[in-house]
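In this section we walk through a basic example: taking a raw amino acid sequence and producing a predicted 3D structure, encoded as discrete structure tokens. The instruction is simple. Fold the sequence below.
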Amino acid sequence: MPPMGLHQAIVIGGGIGGLSAALALHRQGIPVTVHERAASLEPVGAGLALAPNALRALDRLGVGHRLRALAAPHPAIGVRHPSGRWLARTSTAAVEAHFGDPIAAVPRADVIAALLDALPEGTVHTDSPATVIDPGDDRHPAVVRTADGDRSAGLVVAADGIRSATRGLLFPGHPGPRYSGFTTWRSIVTPDRRPTAAGEVWGRGRLAGIVPLADGRVYVYGAALSPAGARAAAGEHAELQRLFGDWCAPVPQLFSLAEPDRLLRNDVWELADPLPAHHHGRVALLGDAAHAMCPFLGQGACQAIEDAVVLASLLGPETADPAAALPTYSATRLPRTTAIVTASRRAGALIALHSPAATLLRTIALTLADLLPTRTLLRRSASIYDWRPPAPVRGA
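The resulting token sequence is shown next.
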């Protein structure tokens, strides 16, 4: 007879990765509970770019259509010089024709709401920190300590972020996250006029991004080289104007609209050293806990959603023991996410260029690349965007 709790799953963390995992497991008929440390699931004021690979995963979860409907259409996306001159631009229609889906820009709040609404009431427990105290093995369930006592589970999904306490427990010899050299600012603002251009502006060691949303608001973000932990003595608005104030419109204007209490500044840390596995015992690591990456490919949340769908696809109500599927989860996800972490770091290295000679060469390279056929350029993203969810096990 299997141990009590073997077919129960516990998810630690109620962010996009944790909620995606909970919904994916629920769709597979596995009872699941989510424990979130924060007092509520009110999301931070930022946007997300859901690439075709993430949209297909969200289709598997049953919420892809809802999020596509909330995305704002854009005629083109690309990269500009701080003067405003386009360096490279791609039609969004070409992206959709090539990959079968667009890149859907939506507020993070909408993704959280879509996932939460699809879960049974009572699945998510907020103001409920949880800690793995025993990862379990093939003979014993894992044990998770909560405010209501210790709980046993056949599967624990640790989606507890870049500073994951679970990762530290499972792999105490791993060096942990490493500072990328970048800090970022993010906000959603409401301008008087909708920007006509979507995409990024690349300067010397910094960038700004403009993502119009469907409701007239705009997701604006910036990144710049900065020492870890540094903060602007004169305030973040003054720092943004110092960095971007002389850039092309509407970059400085959009940053000036950010409400101080809704302007997020975060240093960028990454798991530059891959973990030996994404699981140990009965515990699976997911999202930033497993493979935190730089944001320059826009794949952080997308990969967490992929993780959730892949993990759940290996499980089902007829699965004898969830732990038996975890080595396959690691073997499937570790090579892909390691490659994307590396590619994200390489993209960051291009943005980090700040000498006049290096940035001139980068500008020339981008301009020449823009002369290539669109299909040739899109093929460079195929290894990421062409991903499709695996077929779920019987019993889904």
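Looking at the output, two observations stand out. The mean pLDDT is 94. The longest helix spans residues 326-352. In the next section we compare this with other chains.
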